[in-house]
Design goal:
single chain; mainly alpha; Cytochrome Bc1 Complex, Chain D, domain 2; 9 helices; metal-binding; transmembrane
């Protein structure tokens, strides 16, 4: 149920500009929950321009990389809805992050890969992320566990609901 809601919310609010594995107006989002701290994602989703104006180097990098396209503010989405979207992206991300691009950056062509497994900006951007994560790493891990538990419980509830319907339906056919 949560994943279905997340998919619907993604299609409604994100899908016109983002895909999981292909560049559109904005970067592909496969593995974004692995590349960015969840607190950063909440801030960026609420108001990307505010994050950029506060001098976040990665947000500025994305803004420049995507032709200064302004992502609309989604500060009207509740925390639960944003979590549902992030849970869906996390569950649906089937491509390794190097296919989606380095930290969401689209690869212009295969020439950008210097050696297999080596990406441009690897040292710079990853170091920035490590500095930004700091103690957020623990919070991020806890949030990932919570998303996993909620998704698992949602699926279990759905299975039990379907089983109860099946049981009721089977009871009608007894002689």
């Amino acid at each position: 149920m949560v994943l279905l809601e997340g998919k619907q919310l993604f299609n409604t609010h994100c899908g016109s500009c983002h895909s999981l594995c292909q560049q559109r107006i904005g970067p592909p989002l496969a593995g974004v929950t692995d590349r960015r701290p969840v607190s950063w994602l909440f801030d960026f989703i609420a108001s990307s321009q505010k994050v950029i104006q506060n001098g976040d180097p990665y947000a500025g990098f994305l803004y420049q990389q995507y032709n200064n396209a302004i992502m609309p503010d989604f500060n009207f989405l509740s925390q639960e809805k944003v979590l549902a979207i992030l849970g869906y992206i996390n569950a649906a991300s089937s491509a390794p992050s190097h296919i989606a691009g380095v930290n969401g950056r689209p690869l212009r062509d295969a020439q950008e890969l210097k050696q297999p497994g080596e990406f441009p900006l690897q040292g710079k951007v990853t170091a920035m992320e490590d500095e930004q994560e700091g103690s957020a790493g623990t919070k991020y891990l806890i949030l990932k566990v919570v998303i996993f538990v909620v998704a698992t419980l949602s699926m279990l509830a759905h299975i039990l609901y379907v089983a109860s319907l099946w049981k009721k339906g089977k009871a009608k056919f007894r002689i």
